[in-house]
């Protein structure tokens, strides 16, 4: 089997800029290597993140749920499993995400402006939004958009 071209996996990065304003941009994870997870398995594409203690939470946001303006509690990967939700950052950018989409929530250390701090999020549509949230016990970065690309 010949090695295919490396994939790109899109993710939204919600981050804090140098002025303390939350922003979000679409980037791609791109540092994949083609290898088996052990010598007995066929090769696959893997992008191994730096090791970090983490907390995994399965979340179900009910229909009509709105999480008022808040920061992510820690840097965390959020993968949408079913349903839809939105995230609006302090810069006014609103993004809706659905099944299979990925986000890194890293808007810690924002500075309150016009009653906004962090981000606003909520469900979209008439079904709950289910997700898996992997919170990393690491120091959040500031003004490093797309740092996982």
Number of helices: 0
Low-confidence stretches: none
Instruction: Using the coordinates shown, work out and report the CATH topology.
Output: Jelly Rolls
Note the quaternary state here: single chain
Query: Looking across the biggest beta sheet, what order are the strands in?
Result: 2-1-10-7-12-5
* Percent helix range: under 10%
Overall 3D form: globular
Mean pLDDT: 95
What distance lies between the first and last C-alpha atoms, to the nearest angstrom?
27 Å
Instruction: Give the name of the CATH architecture.
Output: Sandwich
How many individual domains?
Answer: 1
Could you state the order of secondary-structure elements as H and E?
Answer: EEEEEEEEEEEE
Write a brief caption for the model:
With 149 residues, the protein is an all-beta fold. It has strands at residues 9-16, 22-29, 33-35, 44-46, 54-61, 66-70, 76-82, 84-89, 94-97, 102-106, 119-124, 129-136.
């Amino acid at each position: 089997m010949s090695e295919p071209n490396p994939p790109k996996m899109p993710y939204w990065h919600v981050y804090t800029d140098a002025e303390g304003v939350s922003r979000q941009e679409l980037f791609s994870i791109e540092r994949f290597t083609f290898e088996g997870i052990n010598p007995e398995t066929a090769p696959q594409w893997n992008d191994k993140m730096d090791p970090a203690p983490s907390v995994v939470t399965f979340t179900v946001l009910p229909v009509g749920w709105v999480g008022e303006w808040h920061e992510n509690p820690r840097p965390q990967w959020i993968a949408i499993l079913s349903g839809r939700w939105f995230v609006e950052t302090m810069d006014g950018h609103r993004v809706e995400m659905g099944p299979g989409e990925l986000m890194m929530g890293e808007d810690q250390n924002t500075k309150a402006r016009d009653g906004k701090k962090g981000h606003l999020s909520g469900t979209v549509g008439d079904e709950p939004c289910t997700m898996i949230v992997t919170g990393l016990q690491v120091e959040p970065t500031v003004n490093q958009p797309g740092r996982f690309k």
